[in-house]
Write a structure and sequence with these properties.
- The active site is at residues 97, 341.
- It is found in: Cytoplasm.
- Its cofactor is [4Fe-4S] cluster.
- The structure is a single chain.
- By secondary structure, the chain is an alpha/beta fold.
- The chain has helices at residues 16-25, 32-42, 56-65, 137-152, 173-184, 204-212, 228-234, 243-257, 275-285, 310-322, 343-348; strands at 72-78, 84-89, 95-103, 106-110, 114-116, 131-134, 158-163, 196-200, 218-222, 261-267, 290-296, 327-329.
- It has 2 domains: 11-65, Orthogonal Bundle (DNA polymerase, domain 1); 72-353, TIM Barrel.
- The protein has 11 helices and 12 strands.
- It starts with 15 loop residues before the first helix and ends in a 6-residue tail after the last helix.
């Protein structure tokens, strides 16, 4: 699997400032950076040779130093609701998932930041087989580019990005931050900061660091339980980063940024979906500027959890609303395909998830 190691970095890993610096080192004019970014992110060039307004010597230098990361599409699934799920192969043979979700407010892409995951949540297929490696910023950017190329065919664009795919984004913090700056750059994909959401399972030191970045990007916390005991059962990370300390970090983030935080709460039948759980959750977050996103979980064959009934989902939502909590039920996407995070990779690439 590791025979085809990539030796050149992806040009998609370069922020605009990085590219300008590289060009200056090559003795090139800095205005070439704008031309290259235009080819990469506006024209979506598939090779350096397509960059016709660049001198031949510069195109050769680019090809010598960088790869235009190309993700090979192994599987593409399309749901009745328009959701598309992709399994992409990387240069070293590993694979990752990316999802396009169609909303009435635009097209949202869910990207992956790691090959596998070390967090070990007991309900998630992404963690099967553990963590293999981190993705480079360019490999994350390339996921958005691949989806955008498909949308180009119908005259649409990626308007929103969520970092909620395979992996824990804050475990790959520096590459994730480069990715965010590249797709937010008006010379890049120009995706508005408020249209980007990062989700974490609760890496507390990185929550403080992210708050201090002073960005307009949204932050979501995968909570899934209203108390320490139950959260530890569902999410072993709670042993290292305990719920009370997580709530302190969340409060710091809200106070520092002034932004509302989202709590992702997956509902698992008979586990965390009872009225008493809703009341306990409301008590936990009642003083925070926040929103709860209830997630009817997709069934994962490798896990033992079952879906909460619709009546119970509505009962849980109603209980939270009665307690003054801002809550919505996430619209389901791709229910008729391998929609659960990591599920397609686990099914198609069993060698990676052992």
């Amino acid at each position: 699997m590791m025979d085809k190691m990539q030796v050149k970095p992806s040009i998609y890993s370069l922020k605009y400032s990085d590219l300008k610096e590289w060009l200056e080192q090559q003795g090139e004019k800095s205005f070439r950076a704008a031309q290259i970014f235009d080819w990469l992110y506006k024209k979506r060039a598939a090779s350096f040779d397509e960059m016709t307004n660049l001198p031949k010597s510069l195109k050769e230098a680019l090809a010598e130093h960088f790869d235009l990361t190309t993700l090979k599409t192994i599987v593409k699934q399309t749901s009745k609701d328009g959701t598309m799920k992709f399994l992409f192969e990387l240069h070293d043979g590993y694979s990752i998932e990316t999802v396009l979700m169609r909303h009435n407010y635009g097209n949202s892409v869910c990207v992956t930041t790691q090959v596998g995951c070390r967090i070990g949540c007991t309900f998630c297929a992404s963690t099967l087989g553990g963590l293999k490696r981190n993705l480079s910023a360019g490999e994350i950017v390339a996921q958005v580019i691949k989806v955008q190329q498909i949308l180009d065919e119908i005259g649409e664009r990626v308007s929103h990005v969520v970092i909620m795919g395979i992996g824990e984004p804050f475990d790959n913090y520096e590459e994730m931050m480069s990715f965010l700056k590249i797709i937010n750059d008006e010379k890049g994909l120009n995706i508005g900061a408020r249209h980007i959401t990062v989700s974490t399972s609760g890496i507390i030191p990185k929550i403080y660091q992210f708050a201090d970045e002073n960005l307009q990007i949204n932050l979501a916390i995968s909570l899934h339980a209203p108390n320490t005991e139950l959260r530890t059962k569902l999410m072993p990370i709670n042993k290292a980063f305990k719920l009370p300390d997580l709530m302190k970090a969340v409060k710091y983030y809200i106070d520092k940024t002034g932004r509302r935080i989202s709590f992702e709460y997956g509902l698992f039948g008979g586990v965390n979906d009872q009225v008493e759980h809703a009341l306990e959750l409301a008590e936990l977050i009642k003083d925070l500027k926040c929103h709860v996103n209830l997630i009817p979980v997709n069934y994962v064959p490798e896990r033992n959890y079952v879906r909460t009934s619709k009546n119970q989902i509505f009962r849980f939502e109603r209980t939270l609303k009665e307690q003054g909590i801002n809550v919505t039920i996430r619209r389901e996407h791709g229910h008729d395909i391998d929609a659960a995070c990591g599920q397609l990779r686990a099914k198609e690439r069993k060698i990676e998830t052992r």
